[in-house]
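Appendix C: a fully annotated inverse folding record. The material below is reproduced so that readers can follow the format used throughout the book. The structure is listed first as tokens, followed by the designed sequence.
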């Protein structure tokens, strides 16, 4: 009898995110979750790059050097992030957390950086076995806040250490013994920030690991689903040697995805697959005379996935650059003339513009009267409704000032109150015919408006 891993993985983009920056891999030797950061698809690139660097570890029995292999893969992934940032400065600031297990039978290697977590349920005791590299964790360590306060702290998502490419940040590595009956939970902070420790411990008692993983996702969504959420539930079991299907589970913009089958029929350990597996899946069943094909195919799949994601991210960055280097004057939702950065329209439902300021510049002061669409003449109304392009922010402000002077009507003059003529008197006075010198006002005349 040998110890083996049986696992289930789930991922969901949550209720408030348009894409999923989490990436996850689940196989018979490797379990890994990376939570990308950086936005605009950059976080998704970083997490997938690191997972792609770890994936080859699942292709062979790890051997004794569990931590050495994990460390080498993490450094490789971090170096790739640095190369991508050097090639495209728009990716500056992207990075990823990582929590991963390399399973070696009676032992496992555990690597962690950031605030993605690994928990262990053993003999009825549920414990977190990784430490968050976060600001809130530092406050807990110093005794400045309580665990209850940490759950609602406004800076609970602030990560102090992550894989960002610029420098080699040493991850936390540890070796742990494994026992039959152990159950591991790996998760991104989309679960641990929303669901409390006691509820996680209760949910881990669900015997069926797939149902357990589903329930974890359900709890995160019931808690508001503010972030992407990804979980792996894995059991250590005793069994006769038999393989599991190895699958790199890719997160996407869709909602809950299963990893797929976690077991396959028994076969001799040396066999390899008779045909090319589908993308993200490597099932080993071919004659032993070509042992290198398995490793090459896994690497090829990882490279294809990483290149595809990077290509899409570069396209998105290019669109974002072209959009946000333009300005135009248009109409805001409330009808006020406003300055926008970007271009009108959307791509795949994502807006390509944002409002910069209203019709009153910050230096205009409190007496500035907002310019509204109904204040404009026909020509400038059409220009505003269609979005009037300008070169920069100052040009936009000048355009608004021009429209204001062209189209806003001057304040009406107050009528002059003239005295009511007395009965029998004339409404107008007849000036006395008295000579006057040049430059003098003739007697009887007035500089006031005529009544």
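Designed amino acids, in order:
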């Amino acid at each position: 009898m040998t110890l083996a891993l049986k696992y289930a993985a789930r991922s969901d983009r949550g209720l408030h995110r348009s894409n999923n920056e989490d990436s996850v891999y689940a196989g018979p030797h490797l379990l890994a979750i990376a939570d990308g950061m950086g936005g605009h698809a950059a976080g998704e690139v970083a997490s997938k790059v690191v997972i792609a660097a770890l994936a080859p570890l699942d292709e062979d029995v790890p051997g004794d050097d569990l931590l050495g292999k994990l460390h080498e893969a993490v450094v490789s992934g971090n170096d790739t992030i640095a190369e991508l940032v050097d090639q495209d400065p728009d990716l500056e600031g992207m990075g990823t957390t990582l929590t991963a297990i390399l399973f070696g039978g009676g032992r496992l290697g555990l690597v962690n950086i950031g605030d993605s977590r690994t928990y262990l349920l053993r003999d009825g005791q549920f414990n977190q076995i990784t430490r968050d590299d976060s600001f809130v964790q530092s406050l807990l360590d110093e005794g400045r806040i309580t665990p209850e306060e940490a759950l609602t702290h406004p800076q609970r998502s602030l990560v102090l250490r992550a894989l960002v490419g610029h420098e080699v940040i040493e991850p936390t590595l540890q070796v742990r013994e494994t026992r039959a009956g152990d159950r591991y939970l790996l998760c991104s902070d989309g679960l641990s920030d929303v669901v409390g420790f006691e509820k996680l411990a209760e949910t881990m008692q669900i015997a069926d690991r797939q149902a357990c993983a589903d329930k974890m996702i359900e709890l995160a969504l019931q808690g508001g689903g503010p972030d992407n959420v990804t979980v792996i539930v894995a059991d250590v079991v005793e069994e006769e040697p038999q393989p599991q299907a190895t699958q790199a589970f890719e997160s996407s913009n869709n909602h809950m995805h299963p990893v797929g089958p976690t077991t396959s029929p028994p076969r001799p350990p040396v066999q390899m697959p008779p045909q090319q597996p589908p993308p993200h899946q490597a099932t080993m069943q071919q004659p032993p005379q070509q042992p290198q094909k398995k490793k090459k195919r896994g690497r090829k799949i990882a490279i294809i996935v990483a290149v595809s994601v990077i290509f899409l991210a570069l396209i998105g960055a290019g669109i974002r650059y072209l959009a946000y280097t333009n300005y135009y004057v248009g109409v805001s939702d409330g009808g006020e003339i406003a300055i926008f950065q970007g271009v009108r329209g959307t791509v795949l439902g994502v807006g390509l513009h944002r409002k910069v300021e209203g019709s009153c510049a910050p230096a205009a002061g409190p007496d500035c009267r907002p310019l509204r669409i109904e204040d404009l003449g026909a020509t400038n109304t059409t220009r505003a409704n269609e979005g009037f392009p300008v070169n920069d922010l100052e040009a936009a402000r000048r355009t608004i000032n021009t429209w204001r002077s062209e189209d806003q009507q001057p304040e009406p003059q107050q009528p002059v109150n003239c005295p009511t003529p007395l009965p029998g008197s004339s409404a107008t006075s007849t000036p006395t015919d008295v000579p006057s010198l040049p430059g003098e006002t003739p007697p009887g005349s007035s500089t006031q408006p005529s009544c």
